[in-house]
Amino acid sequence: MSRSIYGGAVFEMAKQQFEQVANHLQIPKMERDRLLYPKRAIAVSCPIHRDDGRTEVFQGYRVQHHLTLGPTKGGTRFAPSVDVGEVAALAVWMSWKCALAGLPYGGAKGGITVDPYTLSPRELEALSRRYMQEMIPFVGPHTDVMAPDMGTNEQVMAWFMDTYSMYQGQTINEIVTGKPVSAGGTLGRREATGRGVAYLVGRALDHLGVKAGDATAIVQGFGNVGSVTAYSLAERGVKITGVSDHTAAYYDPAGLDVAELQRHITKRGQLAGFSSQSTIEPSDLLLRKCDVLVPAAMEQVITDQNAPKLKCRILAEGANGPTTPEADAILDRRGSEIFVLPDILCNAGGVIVSYFEWVQDLQRLFWEEAEVFDRLYRILERSFQQVIARAKHDRISHRMAAMAIGVNVVQSAKRTRGLFP
User: What is this structure's pTM?
Assistant: First the structure.
């Protein structure tokens, strides 16, 4: 594809990763564009009345990567950085993630270019409902199923579901996942990504012969994923020595009280103000010595500048795309020094339990929390074993192995179905 609407550093990163795995798999050049470029991209304008009487228009996007295996699936983020290139990259990664986990989905992603913290509760509801209203012609329970992402939450999903349902004339719970349990959500969805990260960290520690009670962890990003990961690791006996969010970073080799951190977040909405004694520069947090480093915030935080300086034993990617291809090359040269849990494996717990929620909504039959997590851990275990085995057999990195499995699944399905018309 000589010209494309998809640009920016994040999409270029997704494209570069794909080209590397396509070269490894020896995918013919004529098949690559169809595998990489999204099936559909939607851009919409979302006007709302602000509380001061002004009318303001926000730009919204939704990218559906492929529908070969089933409906597309993916989150919706409200953030100032959102553009069509970033959304497309996240949709591509979601495709490989779903395929690796064996889910009957293609990848999707959406978002609005807005800082949600500048919106009042009424404005947030108005913008959420307007975005879903604009998306109604392009989404559906068997076409594209939305979920929360950075800047959105259970409440936003409830507004999405209600807006769609009002236009359909009946309640359609299965149009979104990540809803409150009272609105057709599933038990365990909010904690799923973080608990999945912690489970896989536990498996990596086992693989390396390190006892959880002897391990330390640093978690960059203390939102939903990071906070649940920290809490779940602490439950396993891992000492949390560092945490950060967009307002502050703290490091204490003696360990931080995760429960106190969570109480502070609940009260203040941010980490700033928790402590004046253990404060450090956020960029320094990634470079502190630890057994487990969990980047759980944004893309491209592990770069060629800091990758040589990492002092962790396990890099567990709770965020999407936290490691640039240049940093990956450095990690590859460091060999077995750092055990990488790549994002499409490490943070797959969220979409796996979202799949469970969708299935339960379609069946109108809901599971107990224990069943949700039992099923989640079984899928993660299978994926973990597949990635480790593929990496060993092909003598490639864990990231390359995970992506090779995912891309193989999508490529095989496209070949089997053929090209219509």
Answer: 0.94
